[in-house]
Amino acid sequence: MFFGGKFGGKGFYFGGKDQDIIFYRTENIYMKPTNRLTELSIKQAKPKEKQYKLTDGEAMYLRVYPNGSKYWQLQYWFEGKQKILSFGLWPDVSLKEARDKRFEAKKKIKGGINPIEEKKERLEAQEFNEKKDKLRGATTFEIVAQEWFSRQSIQWTERHSRGVLSSLKKHVFPDLGEIPISYISKQDVIASLRKLEAEGKNETCYRIRQKIEAIFSFAEIEGHCFGNPAKGLQQILTKPQPKSHNSLPISELQEFLKKMDADTGSSPTTLLAMKFLILTFVRTSELRFADWKEFDIDCSEPLWVIPAERMKMRKTHHVPLSRQAVSILEEMQQYSGTEGYVFPQVYNQKKAMSENTLLYFSNRLGYAGRNTIHGFRSVASTVLNESRKWHPDVIELQLAHQESNKVRKAYNRAEHLEERRKMLNWWSDYIDSSAENKDT
Question: 153-182 pLDDT, tens per residue?
Fold first, then answer.
């Protein structure tokens, strides 16, 4: 028996067996299981001594706290565990908005997605992007480049450091310096490099691209940017022509040596430096900054040990000294003493020989434009290889070249000093014979 309207009425059930009568009372028999709450009922809900729930249905409820705060929550099961997902604080999140969130959450759960984990990932991504945006606005390319330079220049010579910083200031910072480094695109880098290409400065363009790539690589490791927009650009840029260091033809070496010995207009120290460089075929900078403390000549196997920081490849280099080379050093002691630079300037022994002293000497002998001081390394390499007396790897070791082949590089870790000593003795005898116009 039911009393009341069609929906929402109160019902009473009378039933019994023999004399027994069972009485039930139910309320709201036909009320829907969801959407039980209204904005008004929520507003009127008062806090109690303990927190309690106002159920809206489908496992969503409003939790009312003693302090009056009201939070939307959804209780659900995922992978066999009970979870509680919060939708926010009422009235910031309205009843309608909470129901919409419930609907979306139910769809995700049905699709095998845990909405709590998804929310966590979304918040983490948002926080990450906020940090990234903040970083972008504060870290410009020039700031990162200066940091990169300060760390790398410790390993470089002072001259190389000046050159690197100067090239960045001249060719890179005007275009990219003030831009947040993470905003710089591949096209930005290309546009900057194309300017150098348009001026025909292909060698400069090649080296600048290397520096930019190194800076971005550093920035990526430090977390200043993502990706390296300068990587791989060598494929679309004009390749620089290989540098050629003019060197004497072997047939003219004898004449050069004769002219050198006959010269009376140059300082004796310049002549000795040139002879020593020819005998050892080191790089000009390695000779100019040679210090007496690097030499051991009062022994049966005299040796010059050039420290790594003065070498192009940043590796300690050993130069076995022939008797002719030792003789030159002993003669130089009359001019430079036994401390400081071996080949100082003529008028200031506290300074190393000037960079172009030997080149100007060669030019005065009549070889301007035809011969460079670096070219003597090519002359030595050619003669030694054509003699077929010495292993090519040993010759390359003495030239202090970087071995690109990994297998041969591993092999060349051995110094082969004994064979190199024999080779340099042979080379010194060859130079003596050429100067004296005798057959080798």
Answer: 887 878 788 899 999 999 999 999 988 898
Question: Is-catalytic flag, 377?
Answer: yes
In eight-state DSSP terms, residue 7 is S
Closest by alpha carbon to 204, among 250, 238, 247, 252?
A: 238
Q: How far is C-alpha 204 from the chain's CA centre?
A: 20
Report the distance separating Cα 79 and Cα 421, nearest Å.
Answer: 76
Catalytic: 401?
A: yes
- Listing DSSP states for 49-70 in one string gives SS-EEEEEETTEEEEEPTTS-E
Is 314 catalytic? The answer is no
Catalytic residue among 207, 259, 374, 422: 374
pTM: 0.50
- How far apart (Å, rounded) are the C-alpha atoms in residues 262 and 274? 14
For the question of residue 136 being annotated catalytic, the response is: no
For residue 93, pLDDT beyond 60:
yes
Max Cα distance, the chain (Å): 147
At position 206, the amino acid (one-letter code) is: Y
**Looking at 364, 401, 416, 422, which residue is catalytic?**
401
The predicted pLDDT at position 217 comes to: 93
Residue 231 bears catalytic tag: no
Q: What is the pLDDT of residues 13-37, one digit of tens each?
A: 444 444 444 333 333 434 446 778 8
pLDDT digits (tens, 9 = 90+) for 283-292: 988 999 999 9
Q: Give the orientation angle of helix 202-222 with respect to helix 158-171, to 10 degrees.
A: 90
Q: What share of the chain is helix, strand, coil (3-state, %, to 5)?
A: 50, 15, 35
| Residue 46 contacts residue 66 (beta carbons within 8 Å) | no
Specify whether 63 is catalytic.
no
